TrEMBL record:
GO terms for cellular component: plasma membrane. It comes from Streptomyces rubellomurinus (strain ATCC 31215). This is Trk system potassium uptake protein TrkA. Residues 1-117 form the RCK N-terminal domain. Pfam families: TrkA_C, TrkA_N. Coiled coil: none annotated.
Length: 223
């Protein structure tokens, strides 16, 4: 898979390193000469150019990319890169970094964004996840379909403990995608039984989150 990353700072380089280790082809684009550090990610392609310019993206052959990641520290730049990648080059998947949570509402399909990743939101979500059991934590927002990746740790006294996944009447527009149990990642089947302490990851419509949290709440909290 060919991936172009706009922004060769610490975030962009880290993403590039992970993708290269997984066998992907990576192009890093940055207009700042000081950010062109080929020796830090020697296996990547590098391009000194402004990712907001069509001529630069033509040079990058963006139409050959399967994924574009807008990872600069400037939300305006990330939005422009996302819009150009989607509308001018029909890139199948566009992922954008959100630096300021106040701008998160802009990062949607209207700007060509398929997945918006807010670092501040993700960090705060991980803090919440570490201290809360039974509370729904929003980890990531998917622009298309107004859906979120959410996590909830099932309390030991939750009413659904001991219930088969296939026997639960999940809210509409929600899907249980993963169960994390004792360090293992489980793909849930209908015959799997929910256990206290399970970390449950869902893709859910935002308007269904409260209903989902109520369903998974502890029996003591529901009283």
């Amino acid at each position: 898979m060919r991936v172009a990353i706009a922004g060769a700072g610490a975030v962009g380089r880290s993403i590039a390193g992970e993708l290269l280790e997984n066998g992907h082809e990576v192009l890093l684009i940055d207009k700042n000469p000081n950010s062109i550090s080929v020796e830090r990610v020697p296996m990547a392609e590098w391009l000194l150019a402004d990712a907001c310019e069509i001529t630069s993206l033509d040079e990058a052959a963006l139409q050959r990319c399967h994924v574009v990641i807008a990872a600069t520290g400037d939300d305006k730049v990330n939005l422009v890169v996302s819009l150009l990648a989607k509308t001018e080059y029909a890139v199948p998947r566009v992922v954008a970094r959100v630096n300021n949570p106040k701008n998160e509402w802009l990062f949607n399909e209207s700007w060509g964004v398929d997945v918006a990743v807010s670092t501040p939101r993700l960090m705060s979500a991980l803090v919440e996840e570490a201290v809360s059991v039974g509370d729904l934590v929003r980890l990531m927002r998917f622009s298309q379909g107004n859906a979120n990746l959410v996590e909830l740790t099932l309390a030991a006294d939750a009413e659904l403990v001991g219930t088969r996944v296939g026997d639960v009447s999940w809210p509409q527009d929600t899907a249980l995608v993963t169960i994390i149990r004792e360090g293992r990642v489980l793909v849930p089947g209908k015959d799997d039984t929910l256990e206290g302490g399970d970390e449950l990851l869902f893709v859910a419509a935002q308007e269904r989150e409260e209903e989902l949290e109520d369903l998974l709440s502890s029996s003591s909290g529901a009283q």
